[in-house]
Amino acid sequence: MADQLTELGYDSNLERSRFKDTQYAADGSTSEPQNSAQLTSSIPAGGVAYAQTALSHLVSGEDIQSEDFVTGSAGWRIQGNGDVEFNDGVFRGSITASTIDIGGSDATSFHVDIDGNMWLGAATFATAPFSVSNAGALIATGVTVTGSITATSGAIGGFDIGADYIRDVANSMGMASTVTAGDDVRFWAGDTYANRATAPFRVTEAGAVTGSSVTITGGSVSTSTLSGLIQQTNLNVADRGWSQTCVFSVTDADTVAWGDGILTSADGTAYSITGADTGDMTAKTYIYLDTAVSTTLYQTTTTATTAVGVGKVLVAVAQNGTDEATFEVLQAQGGKNINASEIAAGSITANEIAASTITSAKMSVTSLSSIAADLGTITAGTITLTGAGYVRGGQTDYATGTGFFLGYSGDYKFSIGSTTNYMRWDGTYLTLKGSFDVGANGVINNSSYLVANLPIPPTTVGFNSPSGSEY
Question: How many CA atoms lie within 13 A of 404 on its CB side?
Answer without folding.
Answer: 5
